[in-house]
Amino acid sequence: MTWKDERAVERMIAARAALVDREHIARVNWRKGAAEGGCGVIGIACSVPIAGRHLLQALRQMRNRGNGKGGGAALVGLAPEQFGVSEQVMREDYLLAIAYLDEAARAQVEAQHVERQFEVDHLRIFRPAGGIELDPAPPLVVAYFVRPRGSVLADFAAGAGLEGLPVEELADEFVYQNSFRMNKAWYASLGEKKAFVLSHGKDMLALKLVGYGDDVFRAYELEDMLAHVWIGHHRYPTKGRVWHPGGAHPFVGMHEALVHNGDFANYASVCTCLAQHNIEPLFLTDTEVSVLVFDLLHRTFGYPLEYVIEALAPTTERDFAMLPAGKQAVYRQLQATHIHASPDGPWFFLIAQSAPGEAGRRMPRLIGITDTSMLRPQVFALQQGEPGQPSIGFAASEKQAIDAALESLAAEDARFWSRADRYWNARGGSHTDGGAFIFSVRRDEAGAGELICADKFGRRIEIGESAMPLRRNGKPSGEGKMAAAELPDDLQAAYSRVCSALPGWDYEQAGAFLDDLTDDLRQERARSRALDLLTTLLDRRYPTGNLRRSSWLTMVDEALEKVFRAVREEPGPRYRFHDHGMPLLAPGGRDQAVVLEARRFATEGPHSLAREVVRLVEAGFGRVIVVHARGHRFIANGLGPASDGVRIDVYGSSGDYLASGIDGAVVVVHGSGQDQLAQIMKRGKLVVHGDVGQTFMYAAKGGEAYVLGNAAGRPLINAVGSPRVVINGTCLDYLAESFMAGDVLNGGGFVILNGVAFDETGRLRDLEAPYPGGNLFSLASGGAIFVRDPRRLLGEDQLNGGAFTPLLEEHWERMLPYLQENERLFGISIERLLTVGGERRRPQEVYRAILPARSKALQPEELWVTHGG
Amino acid sequence: MDMDAQTLIARKHSQALHQGFRRWPRMGHAPPALGDRRWTADLILSTWLQAEGGAPEEFGLEYRVGASGGGFDRLAFRSLPREARLPADAAIDTAIVLNRRPYDGRVEIPVPWYGSGMSYGSVSEQVMLARAMAAKSWDTFTCTGEGGYPDSLFPYRDHVITQIATGLFGVREEIIQWAPIVEFKYAQGAKPGLGGHLLGDKATMAVARMRGSVPWVSLFSPFPFHSVYSVEDHRKHLDWIKTVNPEALLSVKVSTPVDIDMVAVGSYYAGAHILQIDGSYGGTGAAPEIAKKNIAMPVEYAIPRVHRYLLEERIRDEIVIVASGGIRTAHDVAKAIALGADGCALGTTELVALGCTRCSNCERGRGCPFGLTTTDPELSLLTDPEWGAERISNLYASMRDQLVEILRRLGLSSVGELRGRTDLLQYVSDESVGDGEVGYDVEG
C-alpha cells in the first residue's frame, strides 16, 4: 500500500482555498435543499459490456421507490465505437459531460470552461429524444472528450502550488476545480440555473433528469449503449415545487458517480467537515456531500477503499471487538478522525467507479456500501460464468429488480440465465464482510474482462463449485436417463428418485427428463403431478452433480412455465386461470385452485395483485397460485380474520409485506421473500423456501413461520403473543429485539435458530457462527430463542437483556413439532441437526435456550415496578 | 373482597367524586394545588362546569386562556365592532371535511375536532368507551391509541380511528378493516423521538392480554417504525393499509421537529388525507418524567409553518391539518384554525371533562385518583361510560357554542373561512396582561 505524501495532501487542500470563500463557508448554516428518503437503486457490473435496456424493466418495477422528481444513470467502461473515439481516447481523455438547461449558455460555457482549458478531441451530443413528456424537459447534454492544455496545466500547477504532483493527479485536480468553478458560476450562484457538469471522469458518464430513472434511458437513448458497469436511480425528493435535474442522482466525485438511498441526520456536520477542507457543496443534497467525502478520502487523502468504507460506515460494538488487533488500531484512528463526517442515518450507496487499472487501462467498478445499522434495504447477487464466459454482479434495493435485469439479459443473450448463483445481504459495519461489496472488471490488453467480487476486506466472493452452467446455444437434446412414467405416484418418493439420479445427469439428460415430465399436460392429473414435483425440485436443496444449481433451476422454471401455460390455454375444473382484465370466476368449491398471472397487475393500489388475491379468495377459491410475481407487494394481505383453509402459493419474485397480518391462511413462497414479511401475522403459516429481508415478522402476534435460509436485520422485533418460528440460517442482527411473546412453557412464542446452510452443492453445513451480530434478544421480556450452538460460540456479550439458560426437556417438547414440520418442508432432518462432528448428541448439548433476564429499570419511575429490584 | 362490597365502594366513591366536580367550581375559590399554568384552576373548573351542562363563564372563571404566558395564552381575536358582526341568529357552519383529496369517500364532521389517541393501557376501557359514545352522538371520531381495540368499542366502529404506532400493539387486520380512518402515529408531541412507553405498573393482566405481552413488564414501542426509514417506505406503509382496507382515510400523526414542513410534504405525497401535528403540551403523562418535558417546537409555531409551506407548494387544499397536543378550549381550537389548521384533536380536555385535575400521576397503575388513567380493575370502575359520554358531549356542545360566537364576532359564517387567518389574531403583550385582563375579544 502506498501512502500519499502528507505534504502533497496538505498542498492539495490548500490549493482549493482559492475556490471557496472561506469566511462564507465557515459561517453557513448548512441545510439540505430537499428532504429525500427513499429511492430505488440498481447497479450492475459485468465482465462484458451490456446494453442499458436491461435496466429498464428493473427500474420500471421499482418506480414505487421514486416519485418522478429525479432519475439518473451512470455508466462506466464504455464502448469507444459508440462514442466515435478510439480506444486510446476513451482511456486517456476526460469525458466532460455538461447539461445545458439553457442552450443559449452553451457558447459562453464552452469558451470559458472547455476550449480555453482543454484540447477537445471529440464531442458527442445527447439531445433528448422526442416524444418523452417530462417537466421540465431533459437538458441537452454535450459530452466532450478532453485533455487539459499543457500550458494551462503548467500554469495551474504553479498558481496552485501543486508543482511536482504526479501528472495524473494534477490533471484530475485541474478537471475537478474547473468543474467546480463552472457549476458555481452557471448553476449554484444563479437564480435561473443554466448549466452544470454531469460527470468528468475517464471512461464514464452520468446522466440525469427530472423524471424516473428509466426515463433517462429513453430520453438519452441509452437502451443500446454498452457499458461494463451501470447504475440506475429513482429519486424521491419531497420538498420544493421546482425540481432541477441538477438535484437528481448520481453525483460525481472525480472518477466515480454515486447514487444513494437514505437520509442523513448530520448533513450539517458533514458539510462542516468538507468546508474545513475547502470543499463547498453546491447542490445541497446528501448524495452530493457523500461523494465529496468519498473523493476527499479516496483521492485527496489517498486512502485505500477499505479505509474509505470504514470512515463512512464505522465498525462498532461487538463487531469492532471481533476485528484483529491490527485492524482495530487502524480503524480506531479512522473513526477518531472521521466520525463527524460519517453519514449518520439510514443509507445505502452504490458507486460506479472508473478506477485506474493496469497499464493505463481503466478498471470499471461497482461498489455497494450499507450503513452500519443496515437501515436501508440492500441485496447483492452474483452469476458466475464458466472460465472465458461472462460473469455478472448486482447490487440493488430489491431482489426482484435484479431478477428483472437478469431475465431481460437472459432473454436475448445465451451467455446469461435468469437466476443468479447467489443472493446475499451485507452486514453493515461488521467484522464479517464489512457491509460492502466491490465488483471490479479487470480488462486485459485485448479488452477481455474478468469480474472480481470482493468484500470490504478484499476477500473474494466466488461460486466455489466446479459445476458448469448450462450453455444455452440451442435447446439441449439427448436421451433421458429416467422417464417420468417410471416415477412413483407418491410425491416424496418421486422426489427422492429424481434427487438420487440427478447428480449423474448432464444438461441434455436433465432437459430430456423435464421435457418428458411436461410432455403431455392435457390431463389435470399430469398437471398436478408435474406442478408438485417441479415445485419440490424448485424449493428443496440437493446435490445437482454436474449441473450448476442456478442453471438447473432455470430449466425447472421453464418446465413449470409449461404447466402454467397449459392451465392458461385450457383451464380445467381443478386448476382455473385468471389474469388482469378477465372477469372473476366463481369456483366450484374450496378445493379449486386458481393460477393467477401476476405480470399485468399493479404492484400496489386498488388494481394491485394483492387486491385481486383478496377478490379471488372472497369469490371462494381455497387456493391461489400466483405466478410471475414481479415485486408485487402485499400479497396475502387483506384476507381479514379467520382465513383458515386458504392457501396462497407464490412463484417468481415476490415483493414486500407478503403475508402481513394473515390470520389462518397458509402462504408458501417458492423462492426468497423480500422485506417486512408477515408483519403483525396473527395465525396461520408462512413458508419461505429461501431468505427473508428486513423486519421479518415485525410485531407478529402468532402463527408459524419457516425460513429455509437467512433473515436480514431485525426479525421478530416487537413480536408478542405466540409466534413459532424456525430460521434455518442466521440473521444479520437485532434478532427478536423487544420480544414479548409470553412464557414459552405456557403457550408463549419462540424462535428456533439453526445456524445451518446448504452450500452450492446441496450439502448442509454449519455456519461459521449461528449468529454473527451483537444484538440478540435485546430488551426482550418474553418468549425464548432456541439456538443451535453445539460449539458454544455465542457469548454473553451478544445479549442485552437475555440470559443463556439450560435447555429443558419441556423446551425440547415445545420445539419438536416445529422441527418436524421444518424437516418435512425443507428436508433438514432433526437427526442431522443433532449430529455434530459425526456424533449424535442430546438436544441439550446442541441447542441453547435464551430467555429474558430480569429487566433493568431504565427510568426512575420503573424502580417501583421492576421485578426483584 | 366480594363483588358487592367492591361495587358499593366504587359507587360511593364515584358519588363523592361527582359531588366534588359539581361543587368545586361553585366554591368561589379554587381548591388548593389545583392545576398548573397551562391548565389553570379556572380552566379545569370551567371545563367541569361545561361538562355538567353549564355555561363556561359562570362563577367568574377564566375559561378562555391559561396563564402560561405564551402561545395560545398570548393570542386574542380581533373581533369586529358590534355593528359589523353577524346577527345572533346567523347560520354558522362549524363542519369540516376530513378528506380533501379528489378520490376516496367524503367524511365530514359537524365540529372541527375529534378525540385524539389514548391507548387502552394509558386510560381505562371505560374512558375509551365514554369517548366513543360521545364521538358517536356528535358524529365525530375518537381514536384507539396504541394498545389494541377492546371489543366493547366495536359497536362504535364507524366513529373509531384505529391507530397504528411503532409497536403495532394490538393491530390486527380486522381493526384496520373496521376503521373509517387509520392513523399512523410516527411520533407524539409529549415525547418526540421516543416511542410509546407504558410502565410496568399499568401493564395489567388485561392490558397484557390485549397486547399479547407479558403482564407487569414495561412496554416500549420502538422509537421509529422499523419498517419505515424513508419517505418511500412511508408510502409503502400507507399502501399496506389501503390494501387491507381500500376505503380507509389515512392520517399521519407527527410531532413538531424543525423540519416539520418537509414531513408534511412527504406525507402528502405518500397519500395521507390528514396530517396531525402533535404539539408538546399533550400526553396523559403516562410517559417517563424525562420525556414529558417540552422538547419539541410549540404547536403554535408548527401550525402556521406547515400551513404556509403547503400553500407555497400548492397542495394545501388537498390535505387536512389537525392540530393537537395542548388544545384545551374552544378558543384554542379557533386559534389553531386561525393559525392554519383545519381542525383539532382533543385528548386531555376530554379527560378533564371526566374529572382529571392534571395531577400527573398517570404513569402509575393506581396513581389516578379519579380512575381515568388506570387499568386497575377496581379503580377503573369509578368512571361510568354513560356518565362520561354525557360529560364529553356537554363539553362539546359548549365548545361549539363558543366557536359559533367567536365566528359571529369575526363576521365569518363558516369555520373554514377562519383557516389561516392570522390577521384576525393579535398578540397580547405584557402590558395588557399586566392589567389583569388577558384580551380575548379585542375589538379592532
CATH topology of chain B: TIM Barrel
Shape-level CATH architecture of chain B? Alpha-Beta Barrel
CATH class bucket of chain B: Alpha Beta
**What is the total domain count of chain B?**
1
Average pLDDT reading of chain B:
90
- Give the low-pLDDT segments of chain B: 434-439
| Count of strand segments of chain B | 15
Backbone structural class of chain A: alpha/beta
Helix content of chain A: 25-40%
Q: Can you tell me the CATH superfamily of the largest domain in chain A?
A: Aminohydrolase, N-terminal nucleophile (Ntn) domain
Any idea what the shape of chain A is? globular
Placed side by side, the strands forming the largest sheet of chain A appear as 18-19-20-21-22-23-24-25-26-29-33-30
Topology, number of strands of chain A: 33
Distance between the termini of chain A: 55 Å
Computed over alpha carbons, the radius of gyration of chain B is: 21 Å
Q: Give the averaged pLDDT of chain A, no decimals.
A: 93
Radius of gyration of chain A: 28 Å
Strand order of the largest sheet of chain B: 4-13-12-11-10-7-6-5
CATH architecture of the largest domain in chain A: 4-Layer Sandwich
- Note the main sheet of chain B: 8 strands, parallel
Domains of chain A (count): 3
What characteristics describe this protein?
heterodimer; A: 869 residues; alpha/beta; Glutamine Phosphoribosylpyrophosphate, subunit 1, domain 1; 3 domains; twelve-stranded mixed sheet; seven-stranded antiparallel sheet; 23 helices; 33 strands; globular; B: 444 residues; TIM Barrel; eight-stranded parallel sheet; three-stranded mixed sheet; 12 helices; 15 strands
